[in-house]
User: Fold Sugar kinase of the NBD/HSP70 family, may contain an N-terminal HTH domain from Microlunatus flavus.
Amino acid sequence: MATRAADLLGVVHARPGVTRAEATRVVGMGTGAAAEVVARLVHDRLLGETPAPPSGSRGRPTTLLAAHPQGPLVLAAEITHAAWRVRAVELGGGVLAAEQGEHGSTTWESVRAEVAAAAQALRRSYDGRVRALGVAVPGPVSAALRADAVSLGWRDVDLRRLWPEAPVLVAGNDATLAAAAESRRGAAADASVVLHLRVEAGLGGAVVDHGVPLSGATGAAGEFGHMPFGDPAVACPCGAAGCWGTAVDGTALARLLGRTAPRDHVAYARRLIRGAVPGSPERDAVEAVAAALGRGTAGLVNGIDADVVTLAGLGVDLLDAAPRELGAAYRAGLMAYRRQSPPPLVPAALGEDGPVVGAADQAWASLVSTLA
Assistant:
């Protein structure tokens, strides 16, 4: 019974407002068992139940299932190259409150202190209701919840220190979590194999195969920005040379223009892409970087056999600003038989919220089995 109760909570998280009849059908419970399980979950404040609007059909009226107004919550934290945010999230993904800020310093101790303080403030606001923490970071995360983040200068930091006493603490790469969220509730919800690419302070991504992100042997899969699709003469902060990420980010734009990239080269790239006018050197640089993104994407599609590609971060800016150049390079790089019906390149529906939504989803997925 506990397994079915957890499964039912999982369905409600994925589809808040689902009818009890539909939720129990998905889980595979009979009417009597469903009534018993739902009643227990409502009594324990794990689930909310309200009457469904009249449907006009015959039979016993059903109810709608969603978060209980006094139910458990998770915290979802996202750390980027320049800022952080923490959300309190109920079952179903509703955001009840949030804290955010910019890094005073990018050292692990400084960022850890800021995020931990925000998480503690939210826990105090919802005394006793916060049961888990999910964290998205811009780099690989091991099974032991230790992370590297080149853009922040982090090496082997212990993410458990964000909330040492957390009943449940999960963490993952930001692009991987965003990819999973896009496949569940975003632009790739109907796809079988998804390639997600996120360009920020570097390029990351993930492959989601029938709803499951491929994490790799050590949890470091999806570091597509470190594939050697770039200029071999350009060194990457990761220690390699010719990384694809160095050909598609703000440093690439600055290099093409003979400039020094500022510290926040993501904001720099966004301003330059949006302000580039036709015929200008800036426009030429934008088109060159867009083409580099298209070529590399084609190589991944050839190897992975994705049926859709979702783009996030600066990838969306480049797609909007130079769709012809990006698309032409993408199609030219595809194997001939794929050009007849190339997998579409689409903006991520969750936009900048992808990683934090994914962190909340992962936290809830781990929490529900402990609740029911």
Remarks:
- The two ends are 9 Å apart (CA to CA).
- DSSP finds eleven helices and 15 strands in the chain.
- The chain has a mean pLDDT of 94.
